[in-house]
Design goal:
Blueprint lengths: L20 E3 L8 E3 L36 E9 L4 E5 L9 E5 L17 E10 L7 E9 L9 H8 L1 E2 L7 E9 L4 E6 L12 E5 L13 E12 L5 E7 L8 H4 L3 E2 L5 E9 L4 E6 L6 H18 L6 E5 L14 E9 L2 E5 L3
Antiparallel strand pairs: 1-2, 3-4, 3-6, 4-5, 6-7, 8-12, 9-10, 9-12, 10-11, 12-13, 14-18, 15-16, 15-18, 16-17, 18-19
Amino acid sequence: FGSSFYVKVDRPIPPLFPTGMAWSGPHQEGGWGPQGGSSWGDMRKGWGKGDESREPKPLPEGVRVDKTQRYKGTVLRYSKWSGFGWIQMEPGTLPGDRAFVFWKSILSEDRFPTLLKDMEVEFGLHPYRSSKVPGATFVRAKGVSLPGGGPINIQDVVDAEKKEFVGGQHLRYTGILKFYDRWKGFGYVTLDDGYELPPGVPKELRLEESEVNAGGKKPLNMKELPMELGIWKTKKGAYKAYNATLAGGVPITQEALENRQLQGSAVYSGVVEVNMWKQGWGLIKLDPGPLPPDVAAKLAEMQQAAVTKSNQALDQTLYFRSSDIRDGHWLKKGQQVQFHVYTDDKGAGAIDIH
């Protein structure tokens, strides 16, 4: 890229993406899929070579999956930068004897969760539907862990083996994030004054998605944010930011940036009033009952702001994001749910919704 070149061919070149398909980017919900779609089951062609390129096969009619069962398997193939792969299972477990795995289903504390080929793992199965095959049920892996349930934390170990660091893997610098673009997958950090850097190390460093420690989530759009980081040197001699976090090593999550505070361990109930699942948020109308003082105060502030803005009061509702829904649960409007409550700089919300 950045220069022009021409190739003479004597036959048509097949499209990079199958007709009607679009790549939604690494570490986005969906990955491969029809434009506007989201599931692997929607994909008509796989990736890779030979038998590994097969798409998931639907379950035979009448077959049901035990969503509470845990299975063991071996990672057949996984693309770190694309964020998905396949797990080989015992013969007869599933059609094709393999399960698709998406990066969000990996239980990990790594900033960029991944799996390694031939790794032994444990997981559950999640059934889902595809609009491309009406009535058919597909399955994918969920809650992928090490055998026994331990998290798959391998990034630091792999980095120690493969990367060259300035001052060591765990040496930390401070600086200001000029910007980070989540759609382009990179940004730039300016180091604070006062560091005696080795010759050739610039004060401004490129920060790529794999080195933004967002607690295993996709990084947000950000700018002018104080942070700490390491520095590593690529094989081509370029210096880049490594494992960028907030001060004290805190992952750069939306919850941390908004100062989210969990308000005790009590469980509350309510009804899903709005569920904008494509946009990733919703509202829950609280059932009558007492609330923690801080939550009640935040709701009162939200009520006053609504009256001031539109001269119309709001019901007692709590905001939630898709990431606040307990793993494996799906919400719909009118559904009765339970949850914990939190406060942040913007108000009050629900978490661990189930």
